[in-house]
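Input set for joint prediction.
Command: fold jointly, output tokens.
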Amino acid sequence: MVVQTPNGFNLDDTGQRIVVDPVTRIEGHMRCEVNVDEDGYIRNAVSTGTMWRGLEVILKGRDPRDAWAFTERICGVCTGTHALTSVRAVEDALGITIPDNANSIRNMMQLNLEIHDHVVHFYHLHALDWVNPINALRADPKATSELQQSVSPSHPLSSPGYFRDVQNRLKQFVESGQLGLFKNGYWDNPAYLLPPEADLMATTHYLEALDLQKEIVKVHTIFGGKNPHPNWLVGGVPCPINVHSTGATGAINMERLNLVSSIIDKTAEFNRNVYLPDVIAIGGFYKNWLYGGGLSSQACLAYGDIPENPNDFSPEQMYLPRGAIVNGDMTTVHDVDVRDPEQIQEFVDHSWYEYAEKGKGLHPWDGETEAKFELGPNLKGTRTNIKQIDEGAKYSWIKAPRWKGHAMEVGPLARYIVGYAKGHEEIKDQVDGLLRTMDLPVEALFSTLGRTAARALESEYCGRLQKHFFDKLMTNIKNGDESTANVAKWDPKTWPKEAKGVGMTEAPRGALGHWVRIKDGRIENYQCVVPTTWNGSPRDSQGNIGAFEASLMNTKMERPEEPVEILRTLHSFDPCLACSTHVMSPDGDELTTVKVR
Amino acid sequence: MSDRVLVLGIGNVLWADEGFGVRCVEQLAQTWALPEGVTLLDGGTQGLYLLPFLEEADILVVFDAVDYGLTPGTMKIVEGDEVPRFMGAKKMSLHQTGFQDVIATAQLMGYCPETLLLIGCQPEELEDYGGGLRDVVAAQIEPAIKVAITKLAQMGVVAKPGRTHSEFLADASIMHHAYEAGRPSEEDACRTGDDRFFPAAE
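tokens >
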């Protein structure tokens, strides 16, 4: 049966059903089912978050000043960004302002996380959807060297000997039977298009990125006191500045600041000489693979982030853009008000939750998190062994957030489309430059590759912003301003009896919001709407499909039993199911189960 | 030069017995004075973020809740090459695929610690978000620490009763006692009420 969704997709569930579970190389667990027609095109897509989520309820009654430490534990990737969102929400509720230095340091940490995540995502989670490391073993190191020099003349690591060494190392690793990181690939699938030399070049950069990411995280260690779980503070940042090294040990001194500066430079160089050129080079071979656009051409949402000045989140004062585009109208960018109860609402008609009032959408301040697990009548299999989910009923642990009723895409591509439509100068320059270099029309952005390219552009832009805030911090310090925290309202006695607040960030994977209600000094209600809740959302009461589902529609699969194309597109969102839902599955199989039914 | 040791606790403290590894490291820091060159780290569920710590270690001791299908609270000690395989054994908790990848990556990069020791404990309950350790698992913290202390002593790393300072432990608000004592009541925060969704396990 063919059904047209209000957001314009024709769903046809008559073809062969393919189940991919779990989707690997993501954070957390998800399952995906699609129907494929006779010619191999996806005509129906169903994405299921297979984990229950209950962070909200465990924060009830806790001290709001501690919420960041809990939210930092939700996820194995973006610890700091949840912590930042949390302290912003609490500060908003209590009317706490932070000093300028704290704003610069928080921005540097957030940008650092952004870059770290984008680099690791591209090389270690996503590249293998495009790059075949096994094919790299057949490459000619000399030709690889020539390719490297043509792609990125300023990158010093480009000699034939260098590539030969890497190739030998790779060979040993593979021959030792440890395929490890590279197992579960569909390495002879015709969807892989790179020549061996490009595969070797990209695999080499996989290793270089591993080395670099170790450096990048040191910025978190310096400003956050430690990593992988940096410290945060309501009212500022927990690291004192002491450039004269006369006070407390552990304070930020010149030596540490110099280290931050050198890491910022090194990372910027990698973005310029390796990451961006790789995306352009690899993208060049896949130029005709323009699937995966999904909602990006019609509905994008960004909250904005990286405020120039502390406590000012107006759109014109933030470097990452805020706005909403709906109905594909790129000429109008709507402003977004996360406090307005009519704008952001979460629906649970197809999610395993229950609201007191059926069919209604709830704003996060009034959010409810009551689980209700039930399966639809068209389910195939049993309760604990689901062979085919019934998407006509409840089918995911992810709620369905909507902006004024619209299903939205969030993330680097959404940010870049919003920025481009708003005429954001830096973003426009970057995008136009990339499209020119690759000789592609602007519509090419609305694709899986567009998502991957936007992430690379953003990584580069974030590097420049990081430098800006480093300089800003140094200027302040030179002028004698070493303040990093405002503790005037630290004592709960200074708080109102009841308060509510919201914190927003642009996490690496998209718009992130925490909504908090505080009563008598304790958390009364806490709700997180995370990027993957937006992107991975199931259908809503109107039947609109979410961004993951939309992005898979009408994609051609080379071999339905080898879901390279599905993984490629889902990975392009950098999904993070750990925080949008919770894991509870008895699998443990490394292998993705792929079932063609 | 003496060996550099990394004592790592992994797991998600928000998932009941999943927090076993992290709690072991916390208690170790509170009860034993370890010699210089030993780093105590709460690794949480982090993956690649742990690589820099692995690179700087010759000996790696990991505390973790691992499901071996044994009686809850049973300890399982695994050494050397067996470690990554055991971490990949049977069913996994949140982070294990991740940590197995971390070891594989360290091997690929040529800086995996030479000596590996995994001190695992069979969890009783993982499906209790926001919960703490169950008694049988909590009771294994001391014995698990004892194993680590004994094995380290055999390698020439001798600990004495006391405390060890580490910057790399959990924030005070989610340390073992504060975390469990501050849990909202069952009336306030639903703890069960949800059947779990099990993907096809074929």
